[in-house]
Design goal:
three-stranded antiparallel sheet, alpha+beta
Length: about 350
């Protein structure tokens, strides 16, 4: 564009110089009475100056008109180039807007920063999970306390089993060996299932020893002051839950809600006792059939935020087989360690 403008100015200077030459020549020629014709030639213009009876007659070759026409053409080309440049500038602005290359205002800047923080947040993106169809977790643990619940909803046992009242520190532990979640809706809702093992410890307040394989349950009251006295059931489990996350991209900032059922199959039971005698620590562990049901089903629920999640379980299936122990159910509450 600059070269075109320079060419235009150069041509205009040439024309101005020619006009000045014509004026000077005419003034000098007017003082003469000859009728001779004076001719001025340049590369592009031929000018004839005649002195007729003191009157100056100037004839300019039509090539000047051609130059003027060319100048008009150059002006039109310049205008066309300017229009094209304006169109290019508009296209560039539109591309900047579409790619967010324009300088953002304060609100937009906060949005961009927030998006970047979400991408890099949480242990160098280690905890940021993509929306896979199936996600897998290992060693999901639940730790809490459990107790027996009578048919009337109380913690009081029937009178004939009152000696089996449990200590408040009876522990419950569930180890989810492997759990998987099927994505049902954008990572927010998943169907969770898995395989695990659950231990229910029933710690007695009184110093009793249960006779294994007894039908109905038989026990004796001992003269030993047990430091720990409990019977334990061990079940292989299959949990099946619906799991909701408010922020599937970042577990640390996600509300967690889950609920479902847990099926169990009895794989073992034992009674463990610890006491001190003669200044030495003593303990026994007797494996056997303590009357626990072989199969059970329970309801489970979880509620939490980030890494902190609480759980609750209730088994409507009786804890003991019919006639083998008190008619009670088991309830558990606690926290989830390494939640899915």
């Amino acid at each position: 564009m600059n070269s075109i403008r320079s060419q235009k100015l150069s041509n205009m200077k040439k024309i101005a110089a020619l006009c000045l030459m014509v004026i000077l020549s005419s003034m000098a020629w007017a003082q003469s009475e000859d009728t001779e014709t004076k001719v001025i030639k340049t590369k592009r213009v031929r000018i004839e100056v005649k002195n007729v009876d003191g009157q100056i007659d100037t004839v300019v070759n039509e090539e000047i008109e051609a130059v003027e026409y060319q100048l008009e053409e150059v002006e039109r080309e310049i205008e066309e180039v300017e229009r094209e440049m304006e169109e290019v500038e508009r296209d560039m602005e539109r591309v900047k807007v579409e790619t967010h290359s324009v300088t953002p205002d304060e609100d937009d800047r906060e949005v961009y920063i927030k998006e970047i923080e979400e991408l890099v947040d949480g242990d160098s993106c280690a905890r940021t999970r993509s929306r896979k169809l199936v996600e897998t977790s290992m060693w999901v643990m639940e730790w809490g306390v459990n107790n027996w619940v009578a048919a009337d909803g109380s913690l009081d046992l029937p009178e004939n089993f009152s000696d089996l009242t449990l200590n408040k520190t009876s522990a419950n532990f569930h180890l989810g060996i492997i759990q998987q979640g099927i994505n049902l809706y954008k990572g927010h809702l998943r169907l969770v299932y898995g395989v695990g093992i659950e231990w229910n410890n029933y710690r007695f307040d009184k110093n009793i020893t249960i006779t294994p394989d007894s039908k109905p349950m038989e026990y004796t009251t001992d003269q030993v002051n047990y430091r720990k006295n409990k019977i334990t059931s061990r079940y292989a489990t299959i949990p099946l839950m619906l799991n909701f996350k408010s922020n599937p991209k970042n577990d640390d900032k996600s509300l967690r809600i889950a609920g479902g059922v847990q099926f169990g199959y009895l794989i073992g039971g034992h009674q463990k006792q610890k006491w001190q005698e003669g200044g030495k620590k003593q303990k026994t562990k007797v494996r056997g059939d303590y009357g626990f049901v072989d199969y059970r089903m329970g309801y489970t629920a979880q509620l939490g935020y980030g890494d902190f999640t609480l759980f609750g379980k209730y088994y409507p299936t009786m804890t003991f087989k019919d006639g083998r122990g008190p008619e009670v159910n088991t309830a558990c509450v606690g926290i989830v360690i390494s939640p899915f």
